[in-house]
Amino acid sequence: MEWALSPAKSFSCVRGSVDEQFFSQCAREYALSLASMVMENYGPACAPEPALLSTMLEHPLASGHVPLWCPELGHCLLALRSHKLPAAQRGLTQLVVNLLCAGVPGTWEVESAEPLRFRWDRFLLPKALHLRIDSDGKEARVDIRGPESRQAVRFYAAGNGRRGWEGADAEALPYLELGHNRALLLSAVHHKGLDLPDPVFPGVDAVTEAHKRLLSDPLDLVREHFPSWSSWFDRVIRTITITQSPPEGTHSGTVDGYYGYIWIGDSGDALKVAESLIHEASHQYYFLLSRLVPLTNDDGRRFYSPFVKRERPPDKLLLAYHAFANVEIFYAECLRLGIEPAQCERALAQLGGELGHVQRVLSDEIDMTPAGRSLFDALHACRSSHGALN
Known about the structure:
The chain has helices at residues 5-9, 20-42, 50-57, 73-82, 85-101, 188-193, 209-225, 230-234, 270-292, 314-336, 341-364, 370-385, and strands at residues 106-116, 119-120, 123-124, 128-135, 139-145, 150-159, 162-167, 171-172, 175-177, 182-186, 239-243, 252-254, 261-265, 303-305, 310-312. It is an alpha+beta fold. The strands form four sheets. It has a five-stranded antiparallel beta sheet, covered by helices on one side. Strands 9-10-11-13-12 form a five-stranded mixed beta sheet. The chain has a three-stranded antiparallel beta sheet with strand order 2-3-8. It is globular, with a radius of gyration of 21 Å. It starts with a helix and ends in a 5-residue tail after the last helix.
């Protein structure tokens, strides 16, 4: 992909306007490169009909980022690093399932030595040793041979102005409507079933209505006061594991390569949860950029990060600055509107000093590539417009 610095700037700030075509191109290139490497390394054991997959990937319905932006691509990355065939099958097959869910017609079949679980839209499929899917874009039949039984599951496109699929013989996962997309909400059991990276704190036993409100309340706050910011989450968050709360505050995380997946602590503090969503969504944009083009040049030196209170490589310092500067912008805007002013002032007092230190190091000591400098300069300008000139 010919690199364009101007669209890359749009990945910098929650209050900016992301270039949708550029984002889709980035997501598509990354997904295609991973799929190509997995097929090259694992061959028919992972992709029995590579020509069919190539045709599906070139279908017009696959041109956007939605079917190609999924956490399970992280399994493809793991497979390339660890040479684990089940991880390759899990990642590549889920990518195909996403294409079929997006309306791309086709048939896909895979056989694994260990039982794997996949998602069809918002439904969790039973464990499968052998999986075959036939879909014409409006109706799909999924034949599953598991460790102890066989099962056929049918899905139908919702229709009547509704999006997604309907089915009666698979487990429906809870979800949140983010706007144009949905975010699935995972308990500890569902998280384990999909074999996603473990969060720092254990997942909750079950996702309740209270857990849904935990996320919907801060999202409603953003929609009400900063409606143009909603797409910052909607574009990149697909799956959320809700974890038990740490002893103090809240906690959240993102794992590089598992795009669309985050975890977040069970907290009743709407501003802190909104902060976490902004922070983790920022990581999603940064990680995607860094997978396609270097953002810093690492000469072996390490730099102190006040956020984690230890030395960090240049790219991790820019990563942290990108996330925390967006959090600072959120609190500054909330303070301007009179939303929980005492909490906002405390957060801004701490962030200002930390970001000021990191900003000076990035400006004076770290060698950033043109793409990294473009990202940094755009975010620096956003901070400056809020009076954050530390």
